[in-house]
Specification:
The chain starts with 9 loop residues before the first helix and ends in a 6-residue tail after the last helix. By secondary structure, the chain is mainly alpha-helical. Helix 4 packs antiparallel against helix 5. It is elongated, with a radius of gyration of 16 Å. 81% of the residues lie in helices and 0% in strands. It has 5 helices and no strands.
C-alpha cells in the first residue's frame, strides 16, 4: 500500500484512537477537576499524532525520524501521567491497563518504523516522497 498522507500511517491512526480514549478518561468527574494534570496529559497525548503528521509533512527522512522520536517521548510522558492518575485513583486499574497496552503497542510500532527508516537511509535507497 502506498502512503500518500500521514493519515495513511497505521501509527497515526492508532495514536488518534489513543487520544480519543485518553480524552474519555480525563472527562471523568474526578479527573476532570484536576485541571493541571488533565490538561497536561491531553497536551502530551495530542502531541503524539501531531508530531507524526508534522514529521511526515516535512518530507525529509531525517526530520521524520526526529519527529517520530519526539512522538515516542510524548508517549512516555502520557504513560507517566496516567500512572500518576492511577495512583491518585482518577482512573481504575482496568482503565490504566487498557490504555497502557495501547500505548505499548504504539511504542513498538513507532520504534519499528524508526528502525525501518533508519535502515533505508543507511542503505541509501530511500527516497522521500
Amino acid at each position: 500500500m502506498k502512503i500518500n498522507s500521514f493519515k495513511d500511517l497505521e501509527i497515526w491512526q492508532l495514536s488518534i484512537d489513543v487520544v480519543l480514549f485518553v480524552y474519555d478518561l480525563t472527562n471523568k468527574t474526578v479527573f476532570s477537576r484536576d485541571f493541571g494534570l488533565r490538561d497536561q496529559v491531553r497536551r502530551a497525548v495530542v502531541s503524539i499524532p501531531s508530531n507524526i503528521a508534522e514529521g511526515f509533512e516535512i518530507s525529509n527522512n531525517n526530520d521524520l525520524i526526529r519527529f517520530l522520536r519526539i512522538s515516542k517521548g510524548s508517549l512516555g510522558e502520557v504513560k507517566t501521567q496516567l500512572y500518576i492518575s492511577l495512583k491518585l485513583k482518577y482512573i481504575t486499574q482496568a482503565e490504566f491497563n487498557e490504555v497502557n497496552d495501547r500505548l505499548d503497542v504504539l511504542a513498538v510500532k513507532i520504534g519499528k518504523f524508526i528502525s525501518y527508516l533508519t535502515n533505508k537511509k543507511n542503505d541509501k535507497e530511500y527516497k522521500t516522497r
